[in-house]
Structure formats: structure tokens, C-alpha cells
Write a structure and sequence with these properties.
- The chain has 653 residues and is an alpha/beta fold.
- The chain is 30% helix and 16% strand.
- The protein is built from 17 helices and 23 strands.
- The strands form five sheets. An eight-stranded parallel beta barrel has the order 1-2-3-4-5-6-7-8, surrounded by five helices. Strands 10-9-11-12-19-18-17 form a seven-stranded mixed beta sheet, with helices on both faces.
- Helix 14 packs across helix 17.
- It is globular and about 75 Å long.
């Protein structure tokens, strides 16, 4: 993708000088003396952007209908005095016990959820608005939304919708699900056709008979499950839209967003569907300390976030300076790892580096979660690295507003993820992300920038397009992928792609359904492999998980299976299409096989790293196409430390 004029959502960065740097600020946890010390420390670290009010509902509304904004006014005035921009949260992340006690149904989900935690509450219940912008019982936006927002904030947002509970099964939720289905289908006959209810005598006589898919003694209707996923994503988005509508009444020019959790671990919401409602994309990302390749997952998350943002700069809303508190073993980050993580996000399009949280709490369930100001204060490695990061980000100001340039795209679709992992598939070992992430990892290690794009996105300008396990796809999106090949791109489509339409109905006539004509192959039958087994291919590489009986129908075999019953059957094919080519991969190669295949695809497409990288070294911003000429590299140290390269022009120079 190429650099574009900084307009639209990107214009929200105009109020920040350089890369935004800061985090969640929760002054309500601290006395006035500590708040004054915070101001001094923020200037020392170079903080210029903070989110405020995230967990303050109980203090903003100590009793229902009674508000106290004095402490917040003081905090915002003090931050403005040192030049720190503020994003004012709606404080809906953690409803106070009094609200929960008066609204007990707000906590009903598939599981029993206590009503005194954070990030709970069903989004389909409208008995009373649940937002600090329009507090419960209040007929109009609060005085704080009217007075404070135009004076201080850089933006506003709600917090982490769907974080801990993203599916709802109460009576009100079931009614909302039925209403959503009626709007979607218009008639019960259309729903029956979409869900294939002629199977197992599941025909519905009216929408009133429908319930959310809960626990059952046998498999559930896949159409019902898929629509329930869509409904829950929509319900959370609808809740966000209602909050934003309230804010727009009093602050029409202030950008609004909410922090997403785009990563390999979160699939409950279709964030591509959300993107159009967010003035700027913001994401939370936390490493799994036990993952030896956590830096690779970070790159995947950042690339996905950039894809959701359509290539625009985005906010890294939360990550951690060191250990978190919610993993089985909360290991600290190694020396230099926090800086490495932060700069890796910047290299992939982030124009803000923010943390949870500014000051480490002394009480509560997150008191052992790291922060920018640790329990030990200034005389700590974490604080010194925070100050060093602030200085580095100032040096990276030329990067701000630029876009990452990529010639390679990986197609990514939440609906295909949902549909491919619903009950009763040919193999439980086929996971939507596995092959996709294997290719992303291999490209990452080669220093090749990758855009993760929705199937409906334009593929113009991409020389290599990878389509992995795109089980469900529309006719139009399949045609767009085929058009990319005809226009000159090298397109690879993998097994279990194009199998069904968006109603999860099998495309008849042979697999891979939607891509039959493009690929010039016809798959007669799937041959999933036994758990843990491998299959040697004709080039000597070993594959796993999947094989299938492929017939050539215009394509050429590049590689074949060996052994009974698929001896000599193509496992990899290529077909010339227009000025490009369409490849088909019928199995899951091992890392060596992935690399050998990429050698072929990269040579044909002409895609090369933007900057040279030694094996195992992740290049920095220049290698990933951002405008700055500031080189930085980071390589895992054998003892677990992280060495950050220094040199002429380096932010650490």
C-alpha cells in the first residue's frame, strides 16, 4: 500500500506532536500528592497522550443521579498545563456495584458472571443507558461531557467491548437475536432456507420459536451458530454506535473509538465490519510470556490491526511495560524487550504507543500488572526503559502519518474463521489461523511486509496474494481474488477454501467450489490425516493435517503426494491466468515446505524485502516501508535479552 494524503481518520493525529506516548491514567486511585508527582514524571518520560476516566464510573456517579466531576476537572486542567492531550473514556468498562445490583439482568450470560467485575454486561438491554456520558437515569448528556470534552480531550472512547463476555443468552438477548434475524431475512421461510432446516426436521414456524444456540446433546445447526456469531458482533457494535450517538450530540468534532483486541486469540467480533464506525483504529496487545515466538505473534497482530485500519496509522492503546497479572506464570519482559515491542508496532503502522497503565496500582486484582511507573519508582529498569522509549519516539517523529508499503497480501476474514470452526467439519485439526500464520511467520522472518486484508478489499497493487483456509466466501469476493490473478498477481489458494457460500451451504460440483475455474483443479474427496501423522511429498518435504484427491482441469502439477491411496496425485498446482498465475495447495507443508513454496511464489511475483535482513533479525521501520530513514533492528539475545542495534541515524544512536 502506498502513502496517501493524511485526511479523514488520520487527521486525528494532528493534535499530537510526533508519536503519541502514554497510557491509561487512573488518578482516582491516588492522593493529590501522588498526582502532582505524576506531572513531573510524565514530563521526564516525554508523555504527551493519556486516556483518563476508564474505570471511574463509581466516582463520577457516587449515587445514582448524583455526579462529582470536580476531581476530574482538576486532573484534566493539570494535564493540560503540561501539554498532555487527553482521551476521555466513557467509564463504562466497570459498572459500580450499585448499578449492577439495581440491574441484575445485565450480567446474564451463558456462564454465571458475578456483577462486581469489569467488562461485563449484556449490550442488548436498553432499560437504562449505561454510559458515563449519559449516566443511568439521566435524560441528557452529563455536564462533564458538555464541559470537559471540548476543553481537553484529543478523543473519546469506550473501553474494550466484548473483552471478557461476548455472547449473551438471556431472555432479552434471545428477543434481540430474533429481531435481528427478522430484519436480516424478512420472512421465516427465508431463514429456513438459509439455515437448511429441512435437515433433521428443524423447520421453524415463526421467529418466536428461535433461541440462541446453547448446549445440546448433539451437533447444533451450523447456520444458526454462524448467525449467532454475526449477531453478537453486531450487538456490541450497535451498543458502541449508541454511545457514540450520545457523544456526537455535544462533541460532534471529537474523534471516537474503542480499543479492539485484534490478535490470534480473539475472534468474537468482525473488526473489519467495525472499522467504518471508528474514527481511528485502536488496539490492545499483550504477549504470552510462555510463547518463544511471541514477537512473531506481535507482528501478526500489528499487521492485522493495520489491515483493519485500511492502512491508516493506528493507536496501540494498551500493551505492558513488563509482566501482566493474568497468565499462569507472569514473567517479566527481558531487558530491551519493551522497547523492541513498542518499535515493532510503530514499524507496522502505529502512531501511538500506550500502556496499561501509567502508575502501577497498590491494591486490586491488577496490582502486580506492570506499569510505566513501577512500584519501585524511578530506581528501576522499567522506568529507565520508559524514559529511553520516550526519547526514541521523539526521534521517530518523521514516521508519523506515513503508511506501510506492502506488495504482499494475506486475505483474512472473521466470518470464514467462524464458519470453518463450527461443528462437524472433516477434521478437527483444521484451524483457520494455522496455515495463514505459518505463511505470515515465514514472510516475517524474510523481512517481507504483509498486509492482512478483507476478501472484499481491492487487491490492486499486490503482486502476491495468499488465500488460506477461506472456507466461506461470496461470489463477488471470489471473483475479486480471481481478477487479481488475471491482472498479473501470483495468487495462492489453499485447501478448505471456497467450499461454502456465506450461508454455509456447500458449493456443488466439486471442491474448491468458488475457485474451481480460477485454479483449474477439481477435488473429488478430502483425505484428512490422522493426528500427529506426516505425509512425504514428491520433493521430500513433509506435510500434515490434510490431503485430498485432486484432479487436474487445466492446471499443471508442481508437486505430488506419495504413498497409498494418493500416490502421484497433485499436492501443489499452478495455472497461468491472464498475466498472472493461480496456485493451489492441497496440504499443510512443514516449515521447510512452506519456505520452498515461498521461494517459488516470491521469485514469480518479484516480491523482495524492502530492506535486507540477516536471518533471525527483524528489520525496523524502513524495512516495512514507513517513510522514516531511521534504521532500527532487534534480535533476540541467546540469554533472553534483547539487543537493539545502534548506528548512524538510529533513534538510539
Amino acid at each position: 500500500m502506498t502513502e496517501k494524503e493524511n485526511t479523514g481518520p488520520s487527521s486525528v493525529w494532528s493534535n499530537i506532536e510526533g508519536i503519541a506516548f502514554g497510557g491509561d491514567y487512573n488518578p482516582e486511585q491516588w492522593p493529590a500528592s501522588v498526582r502532582l508527582e505524576d506531572l513531573e514524571l510524565m514530563q521526564e518520560a516525554g508523555v504527551n497522550f493519556l486516556s483518563v476516566g476508564i474505570f471511574s464510573w463509581a466516582l463520577l456517579e457516587p449515587a445514582e443521579g448524583h455526579y462529582d466531576f470536580g476531581w476530574l476537572d482538576e486532573v484534566l486542567d493539570n494535564l493540560a498545563g503540561i501539554g498532555v492531550k487527553v482521551a476521555l473514556a466513557t467509564a463504562t468498562a466497570a459498572p459500580p456495584p450499585g448499578w449492577s445490583a439495581n440491574t441484575p439482568k445485565s450480567c446474564r450470560s451463558r456462564l454465571t458472571v458475578p456483577c462486581w467485575g469489569r467488562a461485563h454486561g449484556a449490550t442488548t438491554r436498553r432499560r437504562r443507558p449505561s454510559t458515563a456520558a449519559t449516566p443511568p437515569g439521566s435524560p441528557a448528556p452529563s455536564p462533564n461531557a458538555t464541559r470537559a470534552t471540548p476543553r481537553w480531550p484529543y478523543g473519546t472512547w469506550t473501553t474494550r467491548l466484548g473483552c471478557h463476555v461476548s455472547e449473551f443468552y438471556g431472555e432479552e438477548d434471545a428477543a434481540a437475536f430474533r429481531a435481528w434475524l427478522e430484519r436480516r431475512y424478512g420472512s421465516i421461510d427465508a431463514l429456513n432456507a438459509s439455515w437448511g432446516t429441512a435437515f433433521w426436521s428443524q423447520n421453524y414456524g415463526s421467529f418466536a420459536e428461535i433461541l440462541p444456540p446453547a448446549v445440546a446433546p448433539s451437533t447444533l445447526n451450523p447456520g444458526q451458530q454462524l448467525d449467532f456469531q454475526r449477531f453478537n458482533s453486531w450487538a456490541l457494535l450497535d451498543y458502541y454506535r449508541k454511545l457514540v450517538a450520545i457523544l456526537r450530540e455535544v462533541t460532534p468534532d471529537i474523534p471516537c473509538t474503542t480499543n479492539l483486541m485484534a490478535s490470534s486469540a480473539t475472534k468474537s467480533m468482525d473488526y473489519f465490519d467495525w472499522a467504518g464506525d471508528l474514527d481511528v483504529i485502536a488496539n490492545d496487545h499483550y504477549l504470552v510470556a510462555a510463547d518463544p515466538e511471541r514477537h512473531v505473534e506481535l507482528a501478526f497482530s500489528a499487521d492485522l490491526t493495520r489491515g483493519i485500519a485500511g492502512g491508516d496509522p493506528w493507536i496501540l492503546m494498551e500493551h505492558s511495560t513488563s509482566a501482566v497479572n493474568w497468565q499462569p506464570r507472569n514473567q517479566p519482559k527481558m531487558p530491551g524487550e519493551m522497547l523492541r515491542n513498542s518499535l515493532a508496532h510503530v514499524a507496522r503502522g502505529a502512531d501511538a504507543v500506550m500502556f496499561f497503565q501509567w502508575r502501577q496500582s497498590f491494591a486490586g486484582s491488577e496490582k502486580f500488572h506492570s506499569a510505566m511507573v513501577p512500584h519501585g519508582g524511578r530506581d528501576t529498569r522499567v522506568w529507565r526503559e520508559v524514559v529511553e522509549l520516550g526519547a526514541a519516539l521523539k526521534r521517530l517523529e518523521p514516521v508519523r502519518g506515513s503508511r506501510v508499503e506492502s506488495r504482499t497480501a494475506i486475505v483474512f476474514d472473521y466470518e470464514a474463521w467462524w464458519a470453518s470452526e463450527i461443528d462437524s467439519k472433516p477434521s478437527i485439526d483444521v484451524k483457520y489461523l494455522d496455515l495463514l500464520r505459518a505463511f505470515h511467520r515465514a514472510l516475517f522472518l524474510r523481512g517481507i511486509s504483509v498486509d492482512l486484508v478483507h476478501p472484499s478489499a481491492s487487491l490492486e497493487g499486490y503482486d502476491l496474494v495468499l488465500v488460506c483456509t477461506l472456507y466461506a466466501v461470496s461470489d463477488d469476493n471470489a471473483a475479486g481474488i480471481a481478477a487479481a490473478a488475471a491482472a498479473g498477481a501470483t495468487v495462492l489458494v489453499s485447501y478448505f477454501s471456497g467450499i461454502v457460500d456465506l450461508q454455509d451451504h456447500v458449493r456443488l460440483g466439486g471442491y474448491p467450489g468458488a475457485f474451481l475455474d480460477l485454479l483449474g483443479v477439481r477435488v473429488e474427496e478430502f483425505h484428512p490425516l490422522p493426528a500427529g501423522s506426516g505425509l512425504t511429498l514428491s520433493d521430500g518435504s513433509v506435510s500434515s493435517v490434510w490431503s485430498e484427491h485432486v484432479h487436474l482441469a487445466g492446471a499443471d502439477a508442481v508437486q505430488t503426494f506419495t504413498g497409498y491411496p494418493l500416490e502421484g496425485v497433485p499436492s501443489l498446482t499452478r495455472r497461468a491466468v491472464g498475466t498472472g498465475a493461480a496456485w493451489y495447495l492441497a496440504t499443510f507443508p512443514d516449515p521447510a515446505g512452506i519456505d520452498a513454496l515461498l521461494d517459488k511464489l516470491l521469485a514469480e511475483s518479484g516480491v523482495v524485502p524492502v530492506a535486507a535482513a540477516d536471518p533471525g533479525v527483524e528489520p525496523g521501520a524502513p524495512a516495512f516501508g514507513r517513510r522514516s530513514g531511521l534504521p532500527f533492528r532487534h534480535q533476540p539475545h541467546p540469554r533472553g535479552c534483547f539487543h537493539l542495534g545502534r548506528g548512524e541515524g538510529s533513534p538510539y544512536g
